[in-house]
TrEMBL record:
<feature type="region of interest" description="Disordered">
    <location>
        <begin position="96"/>
        <end position="126"/>
    </location>
</feature>
<dbReference type="InterPro" id="IPR047057">
    <property type="entry name" value="MerR_fam"/>
</dbReference>
<dbReference type="InterPro" id="IPR000551">
    <property type="entry name" value="MerR-type_HTH_dom"/>
</dbReference>
<dbReference type="InterPro" id="IPR009061">
    <property type="entry name" value="DNA-bd_dom_put_sf"/>
</dbReference>
<protein>
    <submittedName>
        <fullName>MerR family transcriptional regulator</fullName>
    </submittedName>
</protein>
<keyword id="KW-0238">DNA-binding</keyword>
<dbReference type="Pfam" id="PF13411">
    <property type="entry name" value="MerR_1"/>
</dbReference>
<feature type="domain" description="HTH merR-type">
    <location>
        <begin position="20"/>
        <end position="88"/>
    </location>
</feature>
Amino acid sequence: MEDGGRRPRMATRDPKAQAVYAISVAAELTGTGQQNLRLYERKGLLEPRRTEGGTRRYSDNDLVTLQRITELLTQGLNLTGIRLVLALEAENTALKNQLAHGPSRTGTRKPTRARPDTEATGPQRP
């Protein structure tokens, strides 16, 4: 192989993470306008991949996020609230994955005991 024996990146990626949809297709599939998709990107709710020419490409995972954004908008959240909810949901998923796969070596700490001056009575004042 001329490329040093490396496999193409597509072979190792999650198929749902492949950015294949143009902005017009993503807007149609999710029932929202193209300007809304651009706004969501500016507000940090979504980060579509870009082609070498700069064209936005959306993945199936992005479409799921867009559907979640639509649900949260319907429930009355503003874009700032939605950004927080999405961040908390992502953090919650990551923590669940950590629990499911056991503690990592870098994240394992021994439990610490409270310092003697803060046990039972709280901090001592001079």
